[in-house]
């Protein structure tokens, strides 16, 4: 089946944006529609962006109205650092149910679903095999909220696949992704002056580069690949090797017993150890990535090269700062470029709205839904924000609720980013 | 310390995925199993070398029974508090074989949960005894894998029961070899059971320390944890026996549980008979 009308959820993630950019180049693709809570981070030429507060409940209507034949669902939250457990669960489980509902029903136009899952599906336990294949199950029940979400959502999608044989369903279980535009609990640990480790353990870890995440999704859109596939770079590294590659010492600050307790102490001093990361730091995880390679995909980076890329980014970012703020989504301008009769057809294909960060828009923060969050939830979210967004949020908070604990937390983070 | 794989292993893949194995990255010193050239070479030059040449004075027979390429499952008798036999078999292949190859050892999952062991054992070639691991090593990578089908029952064996092979489990190792179509090479080792004898087990201390077992040996526990390494200088003789082929047993021989059991029993009997013969020829525990 050739995909012509494509819906991408999670357009504002790195891979969502990269996937849309790649599909835009293909003249066979008639329409690309992206939804997300936040505006896209890359320039897009003909992709339509819909900013919806809780994107998933509206997807059914978008699918019907735009006659979508392919849904690429990249919205899964697989890292507890980027959001609160409540929001993550709502997004992962309720959201997936809604997406699946949007793909079913009589006369539904959807013929293909590409679902971004995670290798957290397999967990990280003592009795694990060294390389999980797609047919294997986890050896212990899920321990953390994120893992439970992943297992549940992944299972719901596979159920859907058996019930609807007329829809090509691809589930991609991605290893831990790393890259310049990603903030994950692992990239946070790797940015510390010493890599935290559990004393006496040197776990095996496998990574995938953020560009390969986009590449795998694109491959699944272009080819028909029904089934479940692991997606991970070649090679499994041990943690000490990762530390070597990053040029940092290994810091075995976590004791082998009472690890959870020590982790909560470290969290107090600002080392964000996600619960799902602790299992990885003890037992590690490797997956067998060969089935997806056999479908014709070639990974651009091995696990090792992914870590080397991360080191290069860490070194340049320390000198010239992050270059991620170059593009900024301006709704009216994008609308103008796509719709206005005054825009010449040739200009429509040229580089669009690329403006330097201008005046602050107070509404952006409110639209993103931060006002609905309690102070605790908001503080938990803060480390996932980039410097610009953090500044915006600080100004917004000062003007509106002005909760002292929130302001203090923001100030603390801004201080640490300046010094780091 | 090293049981055989038990549950049914790796999914039979529809397509042959062997061409898609990750390529070698020559800059790396650690492989995908966590095996480290550097750590291994260090032990090989020091402790293993000393034990092999001077302490146990290993004598090797039948090394030509270890195939020069392709996967093969090595099956040995097993005993001793902290068994030195695996290291000696690996060293024997490295020193005596015309085409030396690395040897992977399956070890009980226990080690992955125990700090220190978890870090060290994979670096010198141990992999958790999961059927999928054995299958990948034998079938996909064509490596040599050593299993001790007696498993813990062998390690825990008391001095008075020496050289009496325990049960060979449910024959999981045979199943693994059959699925990989790899030959089984039985090995008889004499000496290991005198080098690290166990006189008794203290069960309450086992539970208290979280160790797999808490034995009384000539040097443990009164010399502390290091006493675990206090091997007596028994003379080692390692005999590699004729390989048992598993690729001529029909289409899906592993489904035939009776056949699996029979092969497992045969391998066990071969090793036991060989041990009895070797013990009969032996004049001294210490000088061979």
Give an account of the 3D structure.
- The complex is a heterodimer of chains A (420) and B (288).
- Chain A has helices at residues 14-24, 59-66, 85-102, 145-163, 185-191, 210-222, 239-246, 259-268, 275-283, 290-294, 303-320, 331-339, 345-349, 362-367, 375-381, 387-399, 404-419; strands spanning 5-9, 31-36, 48-51, 70-73, 112-118, 168-174, 176-178, 195-198, 204-205, 207-209, 227-231, 237-238, 250-254.
- Chain A has 420 residues and is α/β, with parallel strands linked by helices.
- In chain A, helix 1 packs across helix 6 (210-222) and helix 2 runs parallel beside helix 3.
- Chain A is globular, with a radius of gyration of 21 Å.
- The relative contact order of chain A is 0.12.
- The model of chain A is unreliable at 350-364 (pLDDT under 50).
- With 288 residues, chain B is an alpha/beta fold.
- Chain B has ten helices and nine strands.
- Chain B has helices spanning 37-55, 85-96, 110-113, 117-120, 131-140, 152-155, 172-180, 192-195, 203-209, 257-281; strands at residues 59-61, 72-76, 103-107, 126-128, 144-147, 184-190, 200-201, 215-216, 237-240.
- Classes of the chains: A alpha/beta (420), B alpha/beta (288).
- The interface between A and B is medium-sized, with 33 and 36 residues.
């Amino acid at each position: 089946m050739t995909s012509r009308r494509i819906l991408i959820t999670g357009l504002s993630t790195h891979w969502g944006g990269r996937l849309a950019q790649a599909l835009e180049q293909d003249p066979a693709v008639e329409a690309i529609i992206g939804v997300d809570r936040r505006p896209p981070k890359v320039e897009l030429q003909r992709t339509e962006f819909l900013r919806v507060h809780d994107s998933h409940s509206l997807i059914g209507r978008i699918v019907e109205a735009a006659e979508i034949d392919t849904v690429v669902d990249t919205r899964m939250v697989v890292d507890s650092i980027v959001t609160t457990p409540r929001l993550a669960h709502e997004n992962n489980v309720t959201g997936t149910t809604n997406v699946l509902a949007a793909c079913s029903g009589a006369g539904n136009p959807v013929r293909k679903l590409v679902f971004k899952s995670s290798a957290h599906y397999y967990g990280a336990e003592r009795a694990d095999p060294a390389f999980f294949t797609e047919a294997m199950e986890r050896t212990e029940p899920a321990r953390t909220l994120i893992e439970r979400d992943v297992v549940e959502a992944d299972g719901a999608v596979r159920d859907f696949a058996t019930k609807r044989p007329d829809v090509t369903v691809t589930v991609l279980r991605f290893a831990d992704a790393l890259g310049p535009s990603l903030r994950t609990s692992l990239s946070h640990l790797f940015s510390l002056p010493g890599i935290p480790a559990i004393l006496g353990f040197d776990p095996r870890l496998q990574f995938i580069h953020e560009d390969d995440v986009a590449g795998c999704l694109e491959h699944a859109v272009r080819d028909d690949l029904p089934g479940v596939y692991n997606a991970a770079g070649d090679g499994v590294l041990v943690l000490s090797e990762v530390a070597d590659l990053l040029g940092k010492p290994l810091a075995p600050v976590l004791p082998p017993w009472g690890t959870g307790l020590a982790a909560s102490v470290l969290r107090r001093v600002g080392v964000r150890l996600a619960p799902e990361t602790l299992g990885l730091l003890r037992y590690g995880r490797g997956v067998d990535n060969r089935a997806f390679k056999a479908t014709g995909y070639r990974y651009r980076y091995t696990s090792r090269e992914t870590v080397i890329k991360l080191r290069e980014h860490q070194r340049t970012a320390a000198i010239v700062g992050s270059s991620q703020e170059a593009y900024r989504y301006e709704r009216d301008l994008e609308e103008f470029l796509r719709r206005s009769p005054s825009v010449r057809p040739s200009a429509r294909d040229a580089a669009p709205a690329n403006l330097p960060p201008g005046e602050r828009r107070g509404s952006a923060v409110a639209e993103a839904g931060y006002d609905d969050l309690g102070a605790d939830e908001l503080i938990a979210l803060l480390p996932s924000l980039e410097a610009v967004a953090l500044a915006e949020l600080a100004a917004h908070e000062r003007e509106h609720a002005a909760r002292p604990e929130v302001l203090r937390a923001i100030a603390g983070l801004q201080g640490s980013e300046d010094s780091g | 310390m090293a049981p055989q794989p038990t549950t049914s292993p790796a999914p039979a893949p529809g397509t042959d995925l062997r061409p898609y194995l990750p390529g070698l990255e020559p800059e790396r010193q650690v492989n995908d199993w966590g095996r480290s050239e550097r750590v291994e070479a260090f032990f090989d030059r020091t402790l293993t070398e000393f034990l092999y040449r001077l302490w146990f004075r290993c004598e090797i027979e039948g090394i030509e029974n270890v195939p020069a390429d392709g996967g093969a499952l090595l099956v040995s008798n097993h005993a001793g508090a902290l068994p030195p036999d695996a290291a000696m078999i690996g060293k024997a292949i490295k020193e005596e074989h015309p085409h030396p190859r690395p040897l992977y050892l399956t070890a009980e999952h226990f080690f992955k949960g125990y700090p220190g062991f978890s870090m060290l054992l994979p670096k010198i070639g141990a992999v958790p005894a999961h059927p999928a691991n054995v299958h990948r090593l034998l079938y996909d990578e064509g490596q040599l894998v050593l299993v001790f089908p007696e498993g813990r029952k062998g390690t825990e064996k008391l001095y008075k029961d020496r050289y009496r092979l325990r049960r060979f489990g449910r024959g999981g190792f045979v199943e693994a070899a059959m699925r990989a179509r790899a030959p089984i090479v039985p090995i008889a080792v004499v000496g290991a059971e005198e080098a690290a004898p166990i006189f008794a087990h203290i069960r309450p201390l086992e539970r208290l320390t979280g160790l797999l077992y808490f034995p009384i040996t000539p040097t443990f526990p009164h010399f502390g944890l290091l006493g675990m390494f206090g091997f007596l200088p028994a003379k080692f003789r390692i005999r590699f026996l004729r390989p048992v082929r598993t690729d001529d047993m029909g289409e899906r021989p592993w489904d035939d549980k009776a056949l699996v059991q029979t092969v497992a029993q045969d391998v066990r009997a071969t090793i036991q008979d060989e041990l009895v013969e070797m013990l009969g020829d032996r004049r001294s525990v210490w000088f061979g």
